[in-house]
Give the backbone structure.
Amino acid sequence: MTQGYFISFEGGEGAGKSTQIRRLAERLEAAGHDVVVTREPGGSPGAEAIRELLVNGAADRWSPVTETLLMYAARRDHVERVIRPALAQGQIVLCDRFADSTRAYQGAGGDAPASLIAALEDHVLGGTVPNLTLILDLPAETGLKRAEARGGAARFESKGLAFHQRLRAGYLEIARREPERCVVIDADAELDRVTAAIAEAVAQRLDLR
Ligand code: TMP
């Protein structure tokens, strides 16, 4: 069976993931790859409906555990209906956020137990995990300023600086523990330099000619 390649993009608010995903998709397509761009929470009709519940409303609308369960309901639908079929067809999946967002936002940022998150990863993902995770890292203050200027997923942006500092540390810890899968990219650099760093990380794993 053909097997595709799964790349997730992670990072705090305002890290510039969308722009970089678009650029990488263009680069991969130019090199002849078949690319699917998707996002979380969302990416399938059912998961997009759950996204509406998650990104709108007051910061304390959901507790971190409830958020975790909603994220995983959305993620399961997305994995079943979009990610697995694409990988089975040999496509490259570029996903704007995936399971590490739950570890960082609900786990490190909130107080959802790591054991709950690990159990959900085991049972819900069923081995569908990224081959490569690019963590776009920048200071929480810088990211929040960029995100405010852009407008966007307001509910998580309104959680305060300390929350965003904890989730940044959470991401760096994930990278430290899983150096094979994760590459930390300095996202506090000029746009083209970020694009080049991402291309270099991907070129070590896929043909980017
Ligand atoms: P985004 O589309 O701007 O990245 O917004 C999605 C928001 O959802 C973002 O603030 C991060 C948050 N999020 C979580 O808290 N946990 C998750 O598992 C995922 C996928 C996203």
